[in-house]
Amino acid sequence: MCSVASVVRPVAPSAPGDPSGEVLREIPLPPYVIGEDAQFAVRAVVVHAPRRWSGGTVCRNDASPHPCRLHRWGRRVLALHGLPPAEIDALIERGDPAADPRRPGA
């Protein structure tokens, strides 16, 4: 007979202003950003764009409070890729998840 013991880990205390009571860690960044990472980041910021809702601004994809983890990750990756915030906002505004994220001067 085999018995399985479960280990219960304590829940991390909620951060101030965290409505869900859960603390989510940020998605790790790649060690260096290549073109494929930038394409995934464009898809993340476009698919997880903000949407106005009766309760405030939410993620268009999963209705979590905006900016969601994937949107934040995508913005950080695109910034590491060399795009200024205005260019990232323009990508989101275009709404094309397959857009080419060109670095300034490239």
Question: Quick summary of this structure?
Answer:
The protein has helices spanning 35-47, 69-80, 85-94, and strands spanning 50-53, 56-59. By secondary structure, the chain is mostly helical.
Q: How would you summarize the topology of this molecule?
A:
Elements: H1 35-47, E1 50-53, E2 56-59, H2 69-80, H3 85-94
Write up what this structure looks like.
The chain has 106 residues and is mainly α. The chain is built from three helices and two strands. Strands 1-2 form a two-stranded antiparallel sheet. It is globular, with a radius of gyration of 18 Å.
Name the poorly predicted regions. 2-16
Order of helices and strands: HEEHH
Which bin fits the share of residues in helices? Answer: 25-40%
Could you tell me the radius of gyration in angstroms?
Answer: 18 Å
Give the strand line-up of the largest sheet. 1-2
Number of strands: 2
Quickly list its features.
106 residues, mainly alpha, two-stranded antiparallel sheet, 3 helices, disordered N terminus
